[in-house]
Amino acid sequence: MEAKFWYESWEIGGSKTSFHRLDIHPYVQKYASPDRLKGKNVFVPLAGKTNDLTWLRSHADYVIGVELVEQPIHEFFTENKLPYKIMGRDDLKQRR
Fold first, then answer.
1. Cβ atoms within 10 A of the Cβ of 72, count?
2. What is the CATH number of domain 3-8+22-95?
3. What's the pTM?
4. What's the burial of 36, exposed, middle or buried (CB within 10 Å: 0-12/13-18/19+)?
5. Who has the most CB within 10 Å: 4, 14, 21, 84?
6. Cα–Cα distance measured from residue 16 to residue 12, given in angstroms and rounded to the nearest whole number
7. CA separation for the pair 22, 84 (Å, rounded)
8. How many H-runs (helices) and E-runs (strands) does the chain carry?
């Protein structure tokens, strides 16, 4: 997948794309059951603003979501009413 596609998808409305779901993905619930997540760290590449992140965090010790585009990151924290601060330099940023 090209980075251009990812940027354009979020620009036209990422929540309306085929890859953004309002529910928790059934495979996440099936293969990452709460029993299996207890005491684990979870890495979610190209996380967008998936609701899977909050579900995973309620069962795992630590969740790291990585995204190429900033827009869904801001939307995720805003929609979930989670505080965050921007850290980092140049093109590498971290939100906590």
1. 23
2. 3.40.50.150
3. 0.81
4. exposed
5. 14
6. 8
7. 22
8. 5, 4
